[in-house]
From TrEMBL:
This is TonB-dependent receptor. Residues 459-924 form the TonB-dependent receptor-like beta-barrel domain. It comes from Thalassotalea mangrovi. Residues 1-25 form the signal peptide. Pfam families: Plug, TonB_dep_Rec_b-barrel. Belongs to the TonB-dependent receptor family.
Length: 957
């Protein structure tokens, strides 16, 4: 009989699993021996329930507190990427980007605390952080995944939240001599029709081949997976509160009398936009395995993922400029304005409604290569050597086209329409009420003119070379079964490059770079639909036609430059493009020793491990320090990409070295044949995001001799450290029926990275150039310079805190029911997490406490499935409580995200022995993403992404 899950398993069985042939055989033998010893009945199951049972057994025999996913499980669910697959595990949640799961959170901690490996090798990321973007890892090419929630000494350090281990399969362990599989799915998004020019249809395609040759001593596997999908969204984004003004005498204060002594806070504005575009992901894997005998095996494997997206964002960007605007009828909540009317003043005010036509391109590529040699030297001693290379390249090009309303676009010298009045009222998580005095002009080419074009590329590369040597020595001992020890060295280089091109102005019409007159062939009128249908229509502008009309065939390209005026004199207007570009270097040497335990205590079998890992880190970054051109302080001529030479800066490489010792303990007590108790304790660490180690620092000496400075990052940052404890009880119903597990965990976190202001910072002692005196250029007065001043920078906040929680999981296959219902099953998990860590945000104006980023107090996942003969169907529900994460507005902002429920559905049917069909729906209820600042009255993001429908076929032979 044709088995649909075997088809999808074979699709993902491409690559190489980095364990030795003998180790693999030993694990299988040990598992079989234990099974026979305990008289556990083995019943063959198929389909989705077989993948669940396989995952449960992997969790059962693991030596750490972990969660497992098998290949059948991955291939049988509507998982676009590994991010979707991982979120079905207890205590794991996803942050949706563009409607797709990308970053994962584990036990209340964000992606920066999660370590990730592929075939046991550390992976770098295109995100510029430590967290890999899991949507770049096709589920079709991954055979299994494990999430280690407790640590052990042999694991690569880096996961305070946990370690995610992805694996590609070994061709030599494939059951068949040769397998070839093809999968094709068409895709449709039901909201794409609401967004002009958005694509409605996409597809997924994958194939794989595995073969064994030379009497099964040589294995070969190849795999390819392609994803092409439309990316659509309709969104409102409220901006943070970064201005203040005395509004008491005008206020309609919802909290009572408007008598607060301080100024009220005003939002920067908001956006209303249509998003559209296409995402294309091509994934490739290949592997060769050679096992000339039972004691030696060589593996070489490669993984490449290319993820490209081209997208547009159209609509309105409303900028209040509230501290200088005329405001009437303000509505105040908690000393912040959530509604009112804002009018532009003719002079000194930039209140405006921008018609935006953003064009974004993102080209990402991840590569991972490895060579592994495994040698069983003697019956007792095994050695393994691994050489790996991981790289990531990302080029994000943010192109912006702004338009403003003119009094008359046909005038010889058009002038801006100063009659700007904006009325709005936030409605919490519901869409706001808005009104614009200029809304009749938003679709009129005789009024709308393009005022500015800007493009802001952000390129980064991340490369990691690693070398690892591990040994395992078996002992004939009643307490320690074996000893593992090894060393690892890694060398990582990260570089970031910024560049810029700007023409015109976004707040007015520039006389030197005049606005562009639009023509009929450049524009189309766009209407809003659905929930957004009451917003005014606007003009969508063809970017290429507009730029060709403005610049001709020679469209200027962005460069890294200091910035200069019309006469070519450096004015540092875009110096950030130079100062924010640089490199980070990280060299890590680690060594470990770990004893694997196997003994009895009061007739109870105990297994596990105890060990310690030493980690020596050398981190540094390039820096450009402003030394005022003083040669003695290292000043050099620094040339930008257009030939401008700045002589004020001294190039440096700065950083620190430190050594850590990370002990760990894992104990598993087998209470009965079907139940076990686990305990784990460890000290763990997570290094700062690699981009946070950049040295983009600056210091300024004022005319009165006072020094101040700032830096969003720092090469002197040290890791997050935590001591964690785990206690779990697991009960297994039978080999095919399921299990229930209850786990408690506690993490004592020593510190966090925060951007804080240090009042008495000694700049000279910290390595900054500080002159002894400074002369006021206007008055000629010479003042002594005090090297101690105010410095805003990223530091390790030593206050720390704890995270604690409860996880419950339950899986049941109701095989005891009558035949028609014997394929019915249920998988449930619930997590409750709390923390005493309270961070402060001022994005809603006044200071408000918020929880640790990534922490949801309650998580719930469930899958109800039913299999009968050749038919299988299931529905999955994921609930996530409120949490804190990042949203994008004008700038990246930390916001509170509301609870969400994501429902997915799938059904499949095996038509013939080799041919199957599949139907699935992702985000069945079209659940939006919604955020707010501090409290729900201060609206953040409301994004609708639509439902995704898939219809596909699978063929295997």
């Amino acid at each position: 009989m044709f088995n649909f899950s075997k088809v999808t398993l074979a699709l993902m069985a491409s690559g190489v699993l980095a364990i030795s042939a003998q180790t693999y055989a030993q694990e299988a033998e040990n598992s079989t021996a234990e099974t026979n010893e305990d008289d556990i009945e083995v019943i063959e199951v198929t389909g989705f329930k077989s993948s669940l049972i396989k995952s449960i057994n992997q969790k059962r025999w693991a030596d750490t507190v972990s969660e497992q996913i098998s290949a059948d499980d991955l291939g049988g669910l509507p998982d676009v990427s590994m991010a979707d697959a991982l979120t079905r595990l207890p205590g794991i949640a996803a942050v949706r980007t563009g409607g797709q799961a990308a970053e994962i959170n584990i036990r209340g901690l964000g992606g920066g605390f999660v370590s990730s490996t592929l075939n046991g090798r550390e992976q770098v990321s295109t995100s510029g952080s430590r967290s890999i973007e899991y949507d770049q890892y096709p589920s079709e090419l991954i055979s299994s995944a494990a999430v280690y929630k407790s640590s052990k000494a042999s694991l690569i350090e880096g996961g305070v939240a946990g370690t995610v281990e992805l694996k590609t399969a070994s061709p030599l362990t494939n059951e068949e001599q040769h397998t070839f599989n093809v999968n094709l799915r068409g895709m449709y998004n039901d909201r794409a029709s609401e967004v002009a020019d958005a694509e409605e249809f996409g597809h997924r395609f994958s194939f794989s081949y595995q073969g064994k040759f030379l009497e099964e001593t040589l294995g070969l596997s190849l795999g390819y997976a392609r994803l092409y999908q439309p990316g659509v969204a309709t969104q409102f984004i409220g901006f943070a509160y970064n201005a203040d003004k005395d509004l008491d005498f005008l206020a309609n204060d919802m909290d009572g009398p408007a008598d607060a002594p301080e100024n009220e806070f005003i939002s920067e504005g908001f956006e209303l936009q249509h998003l559209g575009g296409e995402e294309t992901r091509n994934g490739y894997i290949g592997a060769i395995e050679w096992a000339p005998n039972d004691t030696f095996i060589v593996r070489a494997d490669a993984f490449i993922s290319q993820f490209d997206s081209e997208s547009f964002a159209r609509g309105f960007r409303v900028k209040f400029d509230g501290e200088t605007a005329a405001i009437s009828n303000p509505v105040i909540v908690n000393n912040s304005m959530i509604g009112g009317t804002i009018n532009r003043k003719s002079k000194g005010n930039n209140t405006r409604v921008e018609l935006v036509n953003d064009d974004n391109q993102d080209f990402d590529e991840v590569q991972s290569y490895g060579l592994n040699l495994d040698w069983q030297i003697t019956d007792q001693l095994n050695a393994s050597m691994d050489i790996s290379y991981s790289s990531a390249e990302s080029e994000f090009r943010n192109g912006l086209l702004w338009s403003l309303v003119a009094e008359d676009a046909n005038a010889e010298n058009p002038v801006l329409d100063q009659n700007v009045s904006i009325s709005y009222m936030l409605n919490g998580l519901d869409l706001p009420d808005v009104g614009f005095s200029q809304e009749d002009a938003f679709t009129d080419i005789d009024r709308v003119m393009v005022s500015k074009y800007g493009i802001y590329p952000y390129e980064n590369t991340d490369e990691l070379k690693a070398y690892r040597l591990d040994f395992n020595y078996s002992l004939d001992n009643d307490f320690i079964s074996s000893v593992e020890f090894g060393v690892r060295y890694s060398d990582r280089d990260y570089s970031s490059d910024r560049s810029v091109y700007e023409y015109g102005a976004d707040n007015n019409f520039s006389s030197s770079e005049p606005p562009l007159r639009l023509t009929e062939d450049m524009v189309e009128v766009v209407d809003w639909e659905g929930e957004f249908g009451y917003f005014p229509s606007y003009l969508a502008i063809d970017l290429d036609k507009a730029l060709n009309a403005w610049f001709g065939d020679d469209i200027p390209q962005p460069v890294q430059t200091w910035g200069a005026d019309e006469d070519g004199v450096i004015n540092n207007s875009t110096s950030w493009s130079v100062l924010q570009s640089g490199e980070v270097y990280e060299k890590v040497f680690s060594a470990y020793v770990m004893a694997n335990l196997d003994f009895e205590l009061f007739d109870t079998p105990i297994s596990g491990n105890i060990g310690i890992r030493m980690v020596d880190t050398d981190q540094s970054a390039t820096a450009l320090d402003n030394v005022g051109g003083v040669l003695a302080a290292g000043a050099q001529n620094v040339m930008d990409e257009v030939g401008l030479v700045n002589s004020n800066y001294a190039p440096k490489v700065i950083g620190i070295e430190y050594t850590d010792y990370l002990p760990s303990l894992n104990l598993n007590a087998r209470l009965t044949d079907d139940s076990q108790l686990r305990f784990a304790a460890a000290k763990v660490m997570s290094r700062p995001p690699i981009n946070r180690l950049a040295a983009d620092r600056s210091a300024t000496v004022a005319d009165d001799g006072k020094v101040s400075g700032s830096s969003n990052n720092s090469p002197f940052l040290k890791p997050f450290y935590a001591t964690q404890y785990d206690l779990s009880y697991e009960y297994y119903f039978s080999e095919t029926d399921g299990a229930v597990a209850v786990a408690l965990f506690y993490k004592d976190i020593e510190s966090f990275i925060q951007n804080l202001t240090v009042s008495n910072f000694d700049f000279k002692e910290a390595g900054f150039y500080v002159p002894d005196t400074i002369e006021n250029e206007t008055t000629g007065v010479v003042s002594e310079v005090d090297p101690v001043g105010i410095y805003s920078t990223a530091i390790n906040n030593e206050e720390g805190g704890n995270i604690k929680g409860l996880e419950i999981s339950y899986t049941q296959v109701f095989s005891f029911l009558p035949e028609l219902w014997s394929g019915l099953g249920l998988s449930l998990s619930y997590s409750h997490t709390k923390s005493d860590v309270e961070l402060v945000t001022d994005l809603a104006g006044g200071s408000v406490e918020q929880s640790l980023p990534g922490l949801s107090e309650n998580l719930f996942t469930s899958t109800l499935f039913w299999e009968y003969q050749d038919f299988e169907t299931r529905v999955s529900v994921r609930y996530r409580d409120e949490f804190v994460s990042e949203q994008w507005g004008v700038n990246q902002q930390i916001a509170n995200f509301d609870e969400e429920v994501i429902i997915d559905y799938q059904a499949s049917y095996n038509i013939t022995e080799n041919f199957g069909a599949l139907f699935q729906v992702n985000n069945l209820t079209d659940e939006p993403t919604q955020s707010y600042f501090g409290s729900k009255q201060f609206s953040g993001t409301t994004q609708y992404f639509g439902r995704q429908f898939y219809l596909g076929v699978t063929y295997s032979f």
